[in-house]
Design a protein that fits this description.
Keywords: ATP-binding, Cytoplasm, Kinase, Nucleotide-binding, Nucleus, Pyrimidine biosynthesis, Transferase. The chain is α/β, with parallel strands linked by helices. It contains 13 helices and five strands. The two termini are about 40 Å apart. The chain binds adenosine-5'-diphosphate and deoxycytidine diphosphate (YYY). The site of deoxycytidine diphosphate has 19 residues, from helix 6 and helix 7. Deoxycytidine diphosphate binds next to helix 6 and helix 7.
Length: about 290
C-alpha cells in the first residue's frame, strides 16, 4: 500500500514539463517518528473531512505550526536571477499579474528589515553598502517567514540565491527545490547603464505621479540619493559579486537542466513575451486568487 502511494506521489511530481533535470526528493521535514515520505502521503491522501484533525496532529509533531502549514501546501518556487539592473524587479510584477504568483524580492525584504530598525538592520545596511551578500541565515529566515505568511503557494523569489551559501541554506532550512530558475541574461555595460539610470527614472515617476512640472527634475536631482547601493563605486562591487558568486549558482542549476535563459537586453515588452512562454509551460494548477 505504502509503495503504491509513494509511486503515485512521485509520478504526480514528475509530470512537470520544465523540470527536465535529474529528479529530486520531495520537500520534507524531519518530524518525530515520521519518515520524510510519509508526511506528504498523509497530507495528500487524507479525506478532507478528517484533514483538520490530521493537520492538527501533524502540527503537534512539526517543529513549528508554520512548518507544517508550509509543508502541507507544497509550495512551488521559481528563482529569478540575473545581474543587478537586468530587469528582475520590472518583470516580476508582470508575472504576478499574469500567472498569479506571489513575488518575494530578497533585496526588498532585507531593505524592510533595515527600515524596521531591527537588531540585524544596521548589519544588513553595511553589507548592502559594500555590495556584499548578507549572511544566508538572515535572508532565508525572512523568505521563509514571508512564504509562511502567504495564502498563495506559488512563489517567484527574485534576487535569490545569490551565492552557493544562499542556495544551500534555502535547501536546508526551507527544504524546497525550485521548479526552475528564470535567468535574465544581460551584458555588463547595459547593467551599469540601467542602474545609474534607475534613480533618475524613480524621480521622473514621482514628478509624473504628483503632476509636478518637469523643470523640477534638475532642482531635485541635486538631492537625488536613491538606493545606497546605486552609485558607481558600489555598482562595480555588486557586478563583481554577481559574476564571481551568482553566475556559478546559475551554472549549477544549468547543469541540472533547470535554467530558463531569457535575453534581457531587448525591450521590456519583448522580454516579457519570452517570460510568458516559459511560464505558460508550467503544469496547470488551480489559480490562487490571492497574490499576498
Ligand atoms: N528591458 C529593459 N530595457 C530597458 N530598461 C529596462 C529593461 N528592464 C528594466 N529596465 C530598467 O532598468 C532599471 C533596472 O531594472 P530593475 O527591474 O530594477 O532591475 P533589477 O531588479 O534586476 O535590479 C530600471 O530603471 C528599469 O526601468
Ligand atoms: N539574496 C540576497 C539578495 C540581496 N542581497 C543584498 C545585496 C544586494 O546588492 C542588495 C540589493 O538586492 P536587489 O536584488 O534588491 O537589487 P539588485 O538586483 O542588486 O539591483 O541586497 C543579499 O545580500 N542577498
Amino acid at each position: 500500500m505504502a509503495t503504491f502511494f509513494v509511486s503515485r506521489l512521485k509520478s504526480e511530481r514528475d509530470t512537470s514539463p520544465i523540470a527536465s533535470g535529474p529528479q529530486e526528493t520531495p520537500p520534507m521535514y524531519e518530524l518525530n517518528g515520521l519518515s520524510g515520505e510519509w508526511l506528504p502521503l498523509l497530507l495528500t491522501y487524507t479525506n478532507p473531512k478528517h484533514l483538520n484533525s490530521v493537520t492538527k496532529s501533524i502540527t503537534g509533531m512539526a517543529k513549528t505550526e508554520m512548518e507544517a502549514k508550509l509543508f502541507y501546501r507544497k509550495p512551488l518556487v521559481v528563482f529569478v536571477l540575473g545581474g543587478p539592473g537586468s530587469g528582475k524587479g520590472t518583470q516580476c510584477p508582470k508575472i504576478v499579474e499574469h500567472f498569479g504568483f506571489r513575488h518575494l524580492c530578497a533585496g526588498d525584504l532585507l531593505q524592510a528589515e533595515i527600515e524596521s530598525e531591527s537588531e540585524n538592520g544596521k548589519m544588513i545596511q553595511n553589507f548592502k553598502k559594500e555590495g556584499k551578500i548578507v549572511p544566508s541565515e538572515i535572508t532565508v529566515k525572512l523568505l521563509q517567514q514571508a512564504m509562511q505568511q502567504s495564502d498563495n503557494k506559488r512563489f517567484i523569489i527574485d534576487g535569490f540565491p545569490r551565492n552557493e551559501e544562499n542556495r544551500a541554506a534555502f535547501e536546508n532550512i526551507v527544504r524546497i527545490k525550485p521548479e526552475f530558475v528564470l535567468f535574465f541574461d544581460c551584458p555588463e555595460e547595459e547593467l551599469t547603464k540601467r542602474i545609474l539610470n534607475r534613480n533618475q527614472v524613480t524621480l521622473l515617476h514621482i514628478l509624473v505621479a504628483e503632476s509636478l512640472p518637469m523643470h523640477l527634475f534638475t532642482t531635485f536631482s541635486v538631492f537625488l540619493k536613491g538606493r545606497v547601493d546605486d552609485n558607481i563605486e558600489t555598482i562595480g562591487k555588486r557586478l563583481k559579486v554577481y559574476f564571481e558568486t551568482t553566475l556559478p549558482v546559475i551554472n549549477y542549476y544549468n547543469s541540472k537542466g533547470k535554467v530558463q535563459k531569457i535575453d534581457a537586453q531587448r525591450s521590456i515588452k519583448e522580454v516579457f513575451e519570452d517570460v510568458k512562454s516559459v511560464f505558460a509551460k508550467l503544469r496547470p494548477v488551480a489559480r490562487v486568487g490571492s497574490t499576498k
